[in-house]
Amino acid sequence: MNERTSTNKPEDHVRIGPLQAAIWKNVNDEGYARYGVTFERRYRDAEGNWQSTASYSRDDLLLLAKLSDLCHTRICEIQSAERARSSEGNDQTAAAPVVRRKATAVRGR
Fold first, then answer.
1. DSSP assignment string, 11-55
2. 17, 36, 45, 77: which is deepest, by most CB within 10 A?
3. Rounded Cα distance, 87 and 69, in Å
4. Where are the domains of the chain?
5. 79: phi > 0 → left, psi -120 to 50 → alpha, else beta; which?
6. How many CB atoms lie within 10 A of CB 67?
7. pTM exceeding the 0.85 threshold for the entire prediction
8. Distance CA 26, CA 2 (A)
């Protein structure tokens, strides 16, 4: 079933100005969760009714990039919380989520 046509609700929403993203959780047959994102721009038509579109102007593009970045961060937070919840019953040391740091080269003196 397509997430946009299902009766399931989005896992979360992220919004910047007129742009909004819905974060969707999809679980496969093996129980593995994958996340997808849909974007829309909200506007009022000539009659004052709210409408939405998936078409973006030049001025929307930087906001769309920032919105995409925020969605990536939010999905990472959701996955980290899920890992912590799933390991609570299995491991007593699962109090804090794992933080991965970028490796940096160390130069000799």
1. SEEEEETTEEEEEEEEE-TTS-EEEEEEEEEEEE-TTS-EEEES-
2. 36
3. 27
4. 12-88
5. alpha
6. 20
7. no
8. 9
Distances (CA, A) of 23 to 34, 51, 59, 68, 93: 10, 20, 23, 10, 30
How far is the C-alpha of 95 from the C-alpha of 72, rounded, in Å? Answer: 23
DSSP letter, residue 9: P
Whats the size of the chain, residue-wise?
A: 109
The amino acid at residue 39 is F
* SS3 state at 5: coil
Written as tens digits, the pLDDT of the chain (109 aa) is 444 445 689 999 999 999 999 999 999 999 899 999 999 999 999 999 999 999 999 999 999 999 999 999 999 999 999 999 888 866 554 444 444 445 444 455 4
